[in-house]
Predict the structure.
Amino acid sequence: MSLGAAARERRLTARTDPADFRSGVHRYRDPRFDTIAVKVFPGEHYVTAVDEMLVTVLGSCVSACIRDPYAGVGGMNHFMLPESGGGGADCPDWGAASSGMRYGNVAMERLINDILTRGGLRHRLEIKVFGGGNVLKGNSDIGHRNATFVEDYLAAEGLPTAASHLRGKLPRRVHYFPQTGRVMLLELRRTEDKAVVEQETRYQSKLRSDPVAGSVELF
């Protein structure tokens, strides 16, 4: 069976998997793209093996869009380092890094592990990263620290980046199609970023009070 035929067979099988239609997922039909879309909010990640579009809006946060094109599975995360995060991003022992770095580590590993457990292989991963703009008042570099973290994490783990659009000062809207790897990115005007800043400010406050999640094994 050819690579393309095998991938199509896996996608057809995946469409009947009730796990892809679990409750709590922010799914809707997007008439502009004539497709099913899934919103990924701060602190979330989502993995799919069906033909749907993943959407998120990023200010200071970062999203990694990762897929295995052969397995036909991919997903997106959306995370921010806690404000207290410090150095240690270049340390390959992520469990020994600061609490902020370990938070980002867990966000990345949860996404990667979910792809691997659904048939993906580490050496086939196609990785694209976006976000990390400095948009929050009073935290002039938190967006850029998020961008540096994801770059350092991928370098330390030996995972190449296929594309990136990081840092800057404007929020971004990202549309990701895991089945093809296509990304549509729009930088938002300053007049459109109020809701993004409010959402990320609430998320940042939550991070200050929540403990770092437990360790996740990367395999």
The chain is about 30% helix and 25% strand. The helical segments are 3-14, 99-117, 142-156, 194-209. The mean pLDDT is 78.
